[in-house]
Amino acid sequence: MILSCDFLAAQAYSDRFTESLVIRPLEDGKVASLFTFTTLMAHASGRDPINDSEDKPQHYTIFPLSLGQILREYAITELHLTLNAGKWDYLHWGTPEDADVGSGAEMWAWMADGGADSIDSRWVGVRNAVSGLLCASLSSLSIQRTTSPLLAFPPLGDLPVIRPTNQTDASKQYHLRHASLPSEHVCTENLTPFLKLLPCKSSSGLASLLNPHKLFDADWHGMGVHVRWLERKGVEVKLTFQAVVDPVRYSPTHSRDASLGSMFDRAIEKPCPVAAESMIQVKSPTDAVFHLSPDAHMENGIAVYDLAEAEYPLDISLRWPAELSFNYLFSSVHTSAPIRVTRVLRDASQTHGRLTVSIINESNHTQYVAYLETVPWFIQFYLHTLRITVDGEPRPDLLHRLSYTPAIPHADPTVFEPIFTLPPLKALRFTMEVEKAFLRYTEHPPDAQRGWDLPPAVVLPIQNPDLPFPISPYKSQRIYTSTLLVDLPTPDFSMPYNVILMTSTLVALFFANIFNTLTRRFVWIQTAVA
Amino acid sequence: MFLRRLGLGTLIAARLLLAYHPALLHLQDDAQLSSPLTSYKRLLEGIFLFQNGVDPYTGGTFRHSPLLLALFSTAFPLSSTTAPIIWLAFDLLGAVSLAKIYHSRTQARDRNRNFVLVAFYLLNPYQLLPSLARSTASIENALSLLASAFACSGKSSYALLALAFLTHLSMPAVLLTLPISLLILRGPHSSLATPTAFHSWSKLIPLIAEYSIYVGILSITASSIAGGVHWSYKTWGAFLTLPDLTPNPGLWWYFFTEMFDHFRPFFLATFSIHMAIYVVPLSLKFQHDPLFAAYIILGIVGLLKPYPTLADAGLFLTLLGVFPEIYQYLRTPIVTALLHLHSSLLLPLFHKLWLSQGTGNANFFYASTLVFALANGFAILDALQAGLRVGLGTRPDGWELVQI
Amino acid sequence: MSIVQKVKAILSRDEITSAKLRLQRRRRITNFLVQRMTLLRALLYVAGYTWLLLLPLPQLGRGIYIDENALQPGQVNTYWDWSNVHSADLYLGQLEELRDRNASKAERADFVRTELLKMGISSEVQPYTFALSTEVLTGQNAYGVLSAPRSSGTEAIVISASWISQRDGIETLNLRGVATILALAKFLKGYSLWAKDLIFVVTDDYMSGMHAFLSAYHDAVPNNLATPPLNVTSGVIWTALNIEYPGHSFSEIGIFHEGLNARLPNQDLINSFHVVSAHTGLVQVTLYDTLYGARPFTELRNLLPSVLKDHPIVDGYLRRARNILQHTSFQTLGKASGPHGLFHQYRIDAFTLYAIPAMGPHGFHAIGKIMESTLRTTNNLLERLHASLFFYIFTTSGTFLKIGAYLPSVICISIATMIAALQSWVNAGWQQIQTISVPDKKDKEDASSKEIVTLDALIQWTTRPRPVLLTIVVMLLSHGAMAVAWRIMSYSFFRQIPWLMYGSVGLLALSSLVLPVLLVEREILLSPAFQKTLKAFSLSLTSTVLSITSLLNFSLSAVLSIAFLPTNFPINANNKGLRTNELISHLVLASLGLILIDSQESVKDWELFGVWFAPFITIVYIPLFLQAALIPLINILYT
């Protein structure tokens, strides 16, 4: 009864909740799955920081209230947050369904300027609020990590024009703040509040599969919160959970057969009543030996289950009856990303290092990519040592355009944003020398000897490299590199008093002697009778 | 005569060969030879940014003077072929000015001694290595010698102009204004043995005024190059606020790495002021021989400045050749020498142990910098006492000299 | 005279008097010291050398302990069981099959790569070629990276085995080591608890393969190495374990830990391995390849009276002495005691587990358990091992010497040498004319001028100029000559023709001796001023070299401190025979350096791994002896 009530309510306020699960077997026997929970608040829009006030009455039904309030408080037009654990293997796993797979925490927001409090203060506010909401320690995404890249993070929705101006100028009213924290770990304490944002929590529907015990043992897992505004539709919040599980590791016979049961050790008991649409898609491999049960109706090679007319408990299983145990060498599935990036920072000493990035173009036509490197200030680039090579041949001409913001000591990070031309079926390799700064002893973390994690670099394939700025016109999928660990030179943390003591003593001695020599008078004294 | 020419020729040739040797390129990364304010790599980086339309003074990497930026991005483009020649040229300039100073001080037409001086300047490892690392410290050395040389030969405007340039490259050089101006007024002749008072202090005012005008003009030029005055925070400001804590042979870096944040400004001020307090007393004490005053002050600045390199100690040691009259009164030359021997070996070794091998920690290198400071302190003190001692003549039998 | 009067006297003094008193006091102290300098020096020598002899005493050492609490060695359940042993045996079978049809390097590498790929570990083969001046080393490494689940892959642990195991010059195939690696890879893949990537490396040859791999991995490929960049990489390597398991089965596991240029791994790693092996594997850990219970120096024991022969104290002393000597023999030459030694230069803590061949009792089961547990321990690390546990000498596998326990020995000797130098410096500049006996106690009471007369007249000195510049030039000449000699020794052309090489080196050395004799005139050469100054400078350089190398490579400095002893005691007797002996002894000691370089292939070590032993000996060690030899040479020639 209650259920049906708020089902009606949902209709009345025309908030729409849809959920979907995409399952995809991978080349190396693992299985990728993506949960997507989308709530649309029709005909609503983000708060205009200038004109309307924070305490305008709001009405929420299935749109998560706690999130809505945050968005309203800080007048956020578009908000993205991802918490991922693991390194996405583009070579074997291909392009992820949800592009934002950078290790650790990553957060960015589009905000309209104007209003009482500045963009940056609102950024700090929303950062702390969201980290409170999801129990993530994002508050350390301080100014030392915050940047405003030009290309790589375009708005995914539309930006409402808040002041009547011509369209090009409208974009100038919006500002991007982006920060990532690679060392952030994802675990149950993030999942629980995440589930609270769902209308059915984890009690029914697809969300009931989100079982921490299994998910956090997966080879790769990550969750995302994406809020955007769509013109003539409203504010849309998209909650995603992505996981790559390894059935081979679980099965005693090392077979890659998988099922909801084996992957999440749950089956779906009942659908989520408020879900207007609830689908499971299995991107089944094309080879014959693959068997899927229960039977689903195929839509161009994708098996689709609609939870509305499925019989329960629903447990989908993927089987390769022909093979006893999985053989990595002769995998029937082949998934690989069109563009792959590897990035390494090798350091001869703790003071210098060399950054080596190779971008591999698997496609047989020339591509343009925007590369984005945002590293904290203590890594200083030597741009004049930038060398671009293809097959060992220097190719400086492949650097199409370069925008660069040098780091400011103890404050802003470096932003290095070149656009490269990738020749077909070749690996572009560029190297650059970097210098590591020396930190004050108060600036080091407690585990100073571990080193510092550098955020992943981002590569964005772009169609036409000459489109105008300031708002990036490129909407293609981002590609993330792995994160890096650099160890910085550390002082001895037990020394402050000793150093102050010893240096001061030396200086004092020097001064005293000079002073003596200059002020005391010379006299001859007789030491022996001549 | 011919032998000297030959010797000089081989010297220069050897210097060039060394400078072009690829194996020595890694010297550019050596923290003892070039500080963040004199590093060749950072200079190249700054020029690169400047030429690619990025303001080099927005970041923290580039801290050289805009004058250098203009000089090397237009007149003398830096490359692996030109740089060695440019640096050698500056070293020769320094060497020649050194010989000039010696000549104008002693009036002796002793060419052999000149040659020894030049050779010592070109071969002294404390000078040679920074120059091979293409650290702009060798440019600073050349300029300070040039300024003194001009002052010795009474060319006041040139001297002050050179000094103003030097001040733009490294701010502590401003402390040399007083002794150099005195030098211009009193001349370089060695009068350590015959102290006489100086009365016309007022004559200093126009010189110092002239100097400040030059500095002003250069600053305006610099601002027009950099497009604003923000360059001064990055270059001169660095001397006062120590934003970059890269280790160097000096006393500041570890002190302010380990400093508690709330004391930082206080000690920064203390250290800066402490460096300045020696100028007036020394200039007064040695008003009869300003060149010697300048010499001692150079040494003290080299010891106490925020971003010293080996080149600073090198300049002091080399200049000792200009004052032969004090040799016999030096009390602890062997101690100084041994301390320098140890520290010059320990500095690179402990730097490697700490930062490359990871077996030692920061205290190792800190200790070696203390030894180095001790060596320099001994040298300065010894020279100072000898300089005063000269005035008191030789020791009669059965008499001893004491200070009370 | 009462206290009151004394105080009154002190108060009533004027500046001059007190200054006089100060002066006297200073002189008394200096005289006191100067007179006892030689004694002090002798004491320091004795202290230093006896200390060196006492190093093997248990009282100086202490038991090992774990400093880094995160390690928690041996705290986990191990899952390695007989099924894994079986898989290891299967791999071994295939490897032996490869060996029997002596498969090519390429086949071997490809086999390992394929096996790793079968497990789902991305892997590849790395061919490499070292072009040395005397030979060309080629080989093929195979390696794979198991990227840990849920980790961002920023840190990694290396588990490696070289195809060849080499002990005392004897080469055996390390088949069981390689089999262990493969079985471990297969086994460890099944667990999701790894926080760091695991890199499995099977290197060709003994050392060169690992050198090639590490150079390529760290993007530091030297000029004489040709190898493609690695495609499968991971993050920063923190620790590495190298397995040598040549025999059929083993009785104890020996630790080899010395790295290139006397670098040592962090002691915590070895200590925690020791704990793991004792508690999990129940295998006795020993140092190097001698059994823990072995009784070294049998012939030396036989010389001892039967009471002492097997006395526990003597026995323990000899055992520790043996280990220390073994350690010294590796360190002095800067040689690595195994492939692990190449890791240290990249700040990676590594050591080699050497399964000492025996008829039993242990095999794959034990080594697997130990490896698993040790890996779990290193997997616990949250920070790089950093505590100051890099300076140590193992006396047994369970006890070691801290730096404070062994460093003073060499430092004492170095100080003594420095005193000798300073004395020589003083004597060079000052000449004593006459001496008056020390005045008796009673008139030392107050500051009467009379007393000062006696004090002053105690020793009469005159000064003489020291030929400093000349001395420096002479020294630079010898160092310069040997620097040229070093260039010659590293040219491939000369290295083809040894007699030519050593001939020219000897010629250079000789010239550095003869040139000064020819160029400088007799009086100066014979003058004590010159000879003493030369001695002073040469000795102070020696002392500096000793104290500085003691921090970098203690073993080397200890050996040097013994070698340099003869130079400290110049024989200035007029006996020609003695002088000749001195001259010859110096020259012999100098040439010993060359002989060592030649017999140990140190030049090759320099070319391949950058071991600085050879250049050091040539450019620093030999010239110091040449300088010492110059003085007797002059005296012999001119008197």
UniProtKB/TrEMBL annotation, chain A:
InterPro entries: PIG-T
Spans through the membrane: 495-515
Biological process according to GO: attachment of GPI anchor to protein
Top-rank taxon: Eukaryota
Entry keyword Transmembrane: yes
Keyword entries, A-Z: Membrane, Transmembrane, Transmembrane helix
Name this polypeptide is given: Gpi16 subunit, GPI transamidase component
From TrEMBL, chain B:
Pfam families per record: PIG-U (PF06728)
Keyword Nucleus: no
Signal peptide: 1-19
Keywords assigned by UniProt, alphabetized: Endoplasmic reticulum, GPI-anchor biosynthesis, Membrane, Signal, Transmembrane, Transmembrane helix
Residues annotated as transmembrane: 157-185, 211-233, 266-284, 291-310, 330-350, 362-381
GO CC aspect terms: GPI-anchor transamidase complex
Pathway linked to the protein: Glycolipid biosynthesis; glycosylphosphatidylinositol-anchor biosynthesis
Localization annotation: Endoplasmic reticulum membrane
Biological process, per Gene Ontology: attachment of GPI anchor to protein; GPI anchor biosynthetic process
Membrane topology per record: Multi-pass membrane protein
Keyword Membrane part of the UniProt annotation: yes
UniProt family annotation: Belongs to the PIGU family.
Record's protein name: PIG-U-domain-containing protein
Species of the source: Sistotremastrum suecicum HHB10207 ss-3
From TrEMBL, chain C:
GO BP term, pick one: attachment of GPI anchor to protein
Top-rank taxon, per record: Eukaryota
Membrane-spanning ranges: 32-54, 403-422, 468-488, 500-520, 541-563, 611-638
InterPro entries the UniProt entry points to: Gaa1
Any one annotated GO CC term: GPI-anchor transamidase complex
Keyword tags: Membrane, Transmembrane, Transmembrane helix
Protein name: Gaa1-domain-containing protein
